[in-house]
Amino acid sequence: MTLPPGPPDPRPETPALGSFAALMRMDTTEPDEVAGADAPGTPSRRDSLPEQAHTDAYPPAAAEQPDASPPAPPVATAAASESVSVERAAPPPAALTAPGVPAAPTSSFSSPPASRPVPSRAAVPPATASPANGRRERRRLDARSVRLLVTPPALLLGVVGTAFILMFTLIEPSPRWVVLLGTAATTFGFDGVLRSGRRQAFAEGGLDTAPLLLLPALYMLAVPVFIEHATLGFATPVASLLAGLGYGALVVGALSSVREFDPSRHRGRLIAAAATYFVAFALFALVFLFGVSQRPATVAVGLASVVLAAEILREGEVDPAETLIYALIVGVVVAETRWVLHYLPIDAYAGALTLLLAFYVATGLLHSYVVRALTREVARTYASVGVAGVAFIAAARVVGLA
């Protein structure tokens, strides 16, 4: 069934959007025609609003072109307008959207996307805000936070210890009382340095300074005597100055590693461990240099190993009685090594190096067990170090260096 056609539309047919003739007609309309747009039979301006909205998208220069130019075909113009509409309606590609961020809704009737603003010079961040400079600043702050604690009393105590070492090694004959006086004076002085530099830890926290005084006392007692017997000529004052610097570093390291949560504890403990192994080597060598017999030498080496191992194994979370048991185990191992070395043709320094190797392996394994880091790889590493050390000492003995 076909419906009858309706009455004809009295308004003239509106040309298609994008028609160049419509554009020219809208732009060449006289003011009188605009004023009489409401007359019957004449299209009003309201009817041409879509065309006006379309013509506003073009620049004024394009609308004021002369009539001499040939009009563009309406089909091509309409196709171009449709392609523009399709481009505006097309959503952005998925690769340009950040993951997890939903894309903005788009529509064919939306306005063209705004161009990306060009950053001005003021918007560019300064050079100090770059990631590399930020990481450099954080490393600088971290290095400042873990800096060793250096106080004037600690520096003064280092100078006093150096003076006592020089007095003992440079005066001939060497006065034995200087070693004893220097050991007592520096030990009491170090106690005062600890209490003044870490008042909150010792006066208010209830910590005891006795465990921290053993290593500096052994340092002042053994190192000057070892320098006197191990050096000759101008090497003696140089070695004495270096020993004084080592004592000052030991004081600073012990002062910086009082508590477990101290920022500089790692560096302080590293300095203390190095000083411990050096003192152990000096004591072991003096036992050979003085020609002590087998039984007293074994007892002396065992006692020294117990005291020094307690310094290595000292940790905040370990009970002192348990630490003493582990130290006794180290003392027994090193004492038995000294007993065996008595029956071997070995020199003093080679024997001291052998005892130091046994002390290092025993304390290393036990320390790894205390801090719960003992694995097969760690045990294999210490075993390889022990085998390599024994092979080196044997080769040096064969060559004649030991």
Task: Provide an overview of this structure.
- With 402 residues, the protein is mainly α.
- Among the domains are: 148-290; 291-402, no CATH class.
- It is 64% helix and 0% strand.
- It has helices spanning 20-27, 31-35, 49-55, 60-63, 74-89, 131-145, 152-170, 176-197, 199-204, 210-230, 235-256, 265-289, 294-312, 320-341, 348-370, 376-399.
- Helix 7 (152-170) packs parallel to helix 10, helix 8 packs antiparallel against helix 10 (210-230) and helix 13 (294-312) packs antiparallel against helix 14 (320-341).
- It is globular, with a radius of gyration of 46 Å.
- The model is unreliable at 27-70, 72-112 and 119-127 (pLDDT under 50).
Terminal Cα span:
124 Å
Order of helices and strands: HHHHHHHHHHHHHHHH
| DSSP strand tally | 0
Question: Unreliable runs, pLDDT <50, ≥5 residues?
Answer: 27-70, 72-112, 119-127
How many strands, which pairing sense, and closed or not: the largest β-sheet? Answer: none
Radius of gyration: 46 Å
Please state the average pLDDT score: 75
The helix content, as a percent range, equals 55-70%
